[in-house]
Automatic annotation (TrEMBL):
<comment type="similarity">
    <text>Belongs to the catalase family.</text>
</comment>
<keyword id="KW-0575">Peroxidase</keyword>
<dbReference type="InterPro" id="IPR011614">
    <property type="entry name" value="Catalase_core"/>
</dbReference>
<dbReference type="InterPro" id="IPR024708">
    <property type="entry name" value="Catalase_AS"/>
</dbReference>
<keyword id="KW-0479">Metal-binding</keyword>
<dbReference type="InterPro" id="IPR018028">
    <property type="entry name" value="Catalase"/>
</dbReference>
<dbReference type="Pfam" id="PF06628">
    <property type="entry name" value="Catalase-rel"/>
</dbReference>
<keyword id="KW-0376">Hydrogen peroxide</keyword>
<dbReference type="InterPro" id="IPR020835">
    <property type="entry name" value="Catalase_sf"/>
</dbReference>
<protein>
    <submittedName>
        <fullName>Catalase A</fullName>
        <ecNumber>1.11.1.6</ecNumber>
    </submittedName>
</protein>
<dbReference type="GO" id="GO:0004096">
    <property type="term" value="F:catalase activity"/>
</dbReference>
<keyword id="KW-0560">Oxidoreductase</keyword>
<feature type="domain" description="Catalase core">
    <location>
        <begin position="6"/>
        <end position="394"/>
    </location>
</feature>
<keyword id="KW-0408">Iron</keyword>
<keyword id="KW-0349">Heme</keyword>
<dbReference type="InterPro" id="IPR010582">
    <property type="entry name" value="Catalase_immune_responsive"/>
</dbReference>
<dbReference type="Pfam" id="PF00199">
    <property type="entry name" value="Catalase"/>
</dbReference>
Length: 495
């Protein structure tokens, strides 16, 4: 039972539903500035929203555990992976990307998969998606991409013209567009959805060796998707359909589970591989790099309070543990800056202190202190500068930064080259895997038909005939017949 009611500074108070008024008989009266309860209640209400995430605003979240199922000591020295059966608590937040926090969650969109593993060597964040690739490979395009999927600056409404103008102007995203307009663009349930790291990461070992990896998270329940018509119907009937589905299943004890796999690539293979493995628009084909299971994920507990547990959660690819390291994917490198920066803006500079973000291991980082909303002991009188001889800092292991086995910044990669602008120039290679996916859809009866229908209903909203021609041309480069069908079905919808 909660304690007796008080004001926010602790004063016991006898009534929470009446303002203090100078009354004239039984009629209305004047409220008083001295009514602290009224003033504080109104003032707090005006401030109870924090900035919504610019992307990934609409979400569901839950707690669970990651369990190691297979030995992977040959791949990484990460402590949370070092023993079969070892369990690590996790928080998972699954979102759409473009639409706002109150939007319908069954609309066609990529779905974000943000997972915090509270390991015994600090937090590891997996900030993934339900697609294995992405729309762009140069991070400078990230804000433009997202704005083109959002509201038009004049009409305040999403615009097919803006969407397709961006994508025909930045066609390296064709592979991701193929994923988006397939059935997987409208999952029927978050429990029946896969997720992928997309980026290449590294598993590292204490001896300084490393391997490149990509992570695959596959639902044990099987993938299930809505067709466009059903997804649209649910968007109207219950805009929180996917949120409710996940919450209700967990509440009933029907815990969703996923298998966690990695694809593994040796550094020497990466140098000679036919595709740039740091290009986020490409997958590693399964037959070249088979999946190897490392673990299993179970969600088993709903949040007690959505705001404190999920809305205040902050995830970033820069949140890492020893044994796990970033690759030279430019998108990943840029996200490692942008995500914590977004959290500092949205939640404040001390966002790591919030209970949902706080590591489950002791933190000792006295060289970052003070700042707004610091509600820790702020390291008391510990030195606030490095190199103190008065009270020296101790380390878990003594070694140089960079080769420190506890550091994620291992020294095994040597980079040298000319400074130049990263190029997103299109090559025929950019269509190869998009064509591969078109063929994969062909294995599932009716899927290619649904794909053309999903896409044509979207492209039919494009007002400019020149722009529509560019879209047909883009998809003709994936498959000539696909382009032709898209053109005829789209133009038929416009007549
Ligand atoms: P395979 O021919 O070995 O297998 C195809 C894979 O496609 C499946 O394993 C499945 O991945 C995935 N898939 C099946 N149906 C769909 C769908 N409707 N939408 C999206 N993905 C689907 O694959 P390859 O590795 O040779 O790649 C062929 C194409 O498959 C790629 O161009 C890529 O677009 C797609 N794909 C590849 C992935 C990879 O990492 N190699 C991952 C996902 C898709 P899953 O079991 O993960 O659902």
């Amino acid at each position: 039972m909660p304690g007796p009611y008080t004001l926010s500074e602790g004063c016991p108070y006898a009534n929470n539903a009446t303002s203090v008024q100078v009354r004239n008989g039984s009629g209305g009266g004047l409220v008083l500035l001295q009514d602290t309860q009224l003033i504080e209640t109104l003032a707090h209400f005006s401030r109870e929203r924090i900035p919504e995430r610019v992307v990934h605003a609409k979400a569901a979240g839950a707690y669970g555990e990651f369990e190691v199922t297979h030995d992977c000591s040959d791949l990484t020295s990460a402590s949370f992976l070092n023993t079969i059966g070892k369990k690590t608590p996790v928080l998972l937040r699954i979102s759409t990307v473009g639409p706002e926090r109150g939007s319908a969650d069954t609309v066609r969109d990529v779905h974000g998969w943000a997972m915090k593993l509270y390991t015994d060597e600090g937090n590891l964040d997996w900030v993934f998606n339900n697609t294995p690739v992405f729309f762009v490979r140069d991070p400078i395009k990230f804000p433009s991409l997202n704005r083109s999927h959002k509201r038009h600056p004049r009409t305040n409404s999403p615009s097919a013209d803006m969407f397709w103008d961006f994508h025909t102007g930045n066609p390296e995203g064709i592979h991701q567009l193929m994923h988006l307009f397939s059935d997987r663009g409208t999952p029927a349930s978050l429990r029946h959805m896969n997720a992928y790291s997309g980026h290449t990461y590294k598993f590292t070992k204490e001896d300084g060796s490393f391997k490149y990896i990509k992570v695959h998270i596959k639902t044990q329940l099987g993938v299930k998707n809505f067709d466009e018509e059903t997804a649209t119907k649910f968007a109207g009937q219950n805009p929180d359909y996917l949120v409710d589905d996940l919450f209700d299943a967990i509440e009933k004890g029907d815990y969703p589970k996923w298998n966690i796999y990695v694809q593994v690539m040796e550094p020497e293979q990466a140098e000679n591989y036919k595709w740039n493995i740091f290009d986020m628009t490409k997958v590693w084909p399964h037959h070249d790099f088979p999946l190897r299971q490392i673990g299993q994920l179970t969600l088993n507990r709903n949040p007690r309070n959505y705001f404190t547990d999920i809305e205040q959660a902050a995830f970033s690819p820069s949140t890492m543990v020893p044994g796990w390291a970033p690759s030279a994917d430019p998108m990943l490198q840029a996200r490692m800056f942008a995500y914590p920066d977004a959290a500092r803006y949205r939640l404040g500079v001390n966002y790591q202190h919030l209970p949902t973000n706080h590591a489950k291991v002791p933190i000792y980082c006295p060289f970052q202190r003070d700042g707004f909303m610091n509600f820790t002991d702020n390291y008391g009188d510990d030195p606030n500068y490095v190199g103190s001889s008065l009270r020296p800092t101790t380390f878990k292991t003594e070694s140089r930064v960079g080769t420190n086995k506890l550091s994620t910044l291992t020294e095994h990669e040597k980079w040298a080259g000319e400074i130049s602008s990263f190029t997103s120039e299109l090559t025929p290679q950019d269509f190869e895997q998009a064509t591969g996916l078109w063929k994969v859809l062909g294995r599932d009866p009716g899927h290619q038909d649904r794909f053309v229908s999903n896409l044509s209903h979207n492209v039919a909203k494009v007002t400019s005939s020149d722009l529509r021609l560019k879209v047909y041309d883009l998809f003709s480069r994936v498959d000539k017949k696909l382009g032709d069908r898209l053109r005829s079905e789209t133009e038929a919808l416009r007549t």
